[in-house]
Amino acid sequence: MDSWPSVAKGVLQPDDRSPETQALLRAWLAVQRCFGLHPQRVCEELRRDPDPRRLLRGAGGLPSEAELDRAVCALRSTRTVAVPIGSSAYPARLERLTDAPPLLLLRGDVRIPSRPCVAIVGARAATVYGLDAAKHFASELASAGVVIVSGLAVGIDAAAHRAALEVGGTTLAVQACGPDRVYPARHRRLADDIAKAGGVLTEFFPGTRPRPAFFPLRNRLISALSVAVLVVEARERSGSLLTAGHAANQGVDVFAVPGPISAPTSRGTNRLLRDGAGVALEASDILAALGVAGVVPKPGAVVEAWTDEQNRILRTLERESQSRDELARQLGRTPEQLALGLAELELSGRVSQDRDGRLCVVSPPEVPEL
Fold first, then answer.
1. Between the ranges 54-58, 66-70, 362-366, where is the mean pLDDT highest?
2. For 344-348, what is the mean pLDDT?
3. d(Cα 44, Cα 48) in Å, to the nearest integer?
4. Residue 363: predicted pLDDT
5. DSSP secondary structure string, 293-319?
6. Chain centre distance of CA 259
7. Are strands 359-361 and 351-353 parallel, antiparallel or unpaired?
8. What structural domains and CATH numbers belong to the chain?
9. Taking 90 as the threshold, does the pLDDT of residue 335 lie above it?
10. What is the mean pLDDT of the chain?
11. Cβ count near 143 (within 10 Å)
12. Does the pTM of the predicted model rise above 0.90?
């Protein structure tokens, strides 16, 4: 598919009072308010014409100016930025969705969602075994430079977020409500800590309260942002199984932590294993599946030197994005021979995939961290 065009090249800062920025921000918020719950309706239209103002012409149910004023104020008060689809900061992994959100609202570092992420999800009513497993995997993966993605819920989600923070890692929370709300409310301080060391992301208009129907929508983003989904504990009808289902449909690897066959909280995970999910006993199981044998540097850390082959990869991709096969041919190697070096570059944040799955060098957006 062709890359997304956009009239907004980066994020839209609510504090930028220039008329053009404010007009675009309000237009994108109006698109989110009108079409956010049915994004597939507008994806193709925005691909043909990326200016949201034209999409709104003749649309019904537009928010009032007062409602947009309140939305912009909510973004300012929470230090939240707007990331329109097609902009340089919009995650390529989400752009591939047929129901990609037209607008993301993010509190934190806008680069985080585009880094290599692993989702850790599971039961709200988690057991001690499940909480310990979530902490173990989150701390090990975060120490390896992987962003831990979860949904800020009680139980496994919160344990994964906290474990990543405790080792100085990065974590991303995806919410099923507006950016000016936190659900559950008891996790407001946790959300603040996550925003300082990573990001809190939502596709919902400011002021939106969480509803049961919104959580499956959130779950599809959790899986789509990730290179792998790890289900730690899940009952037979758990929402975590929906996340795993989204992942399978999106081509994302699914892993599960095995549990006692008599434990209700492990019936869902054991069923995933029976149906072909990867067995997760150690973080190395997930890293190995991603092509990484050991710990890699965290983005932002000082790297003394890449290998000669990795430097050749970077120089080649700086000239033009490549598929893995094209890159291997140019370098006179096989894709298998490049796998480890590429995985380290991807986990470090230096190389990413565009919406067509082609490899490219990552340049951070020209936006200050919030």
1. 66-70
2. 75
3. 6
4. 61
5. -S--PPTTS--S---HHHHHHHHHHHH
6. 27
7. antiparallel
8. 116-289 (3.40.50.450), 308-361 (1.10.10.10)
9. no
10. 85
11. 17
12. no
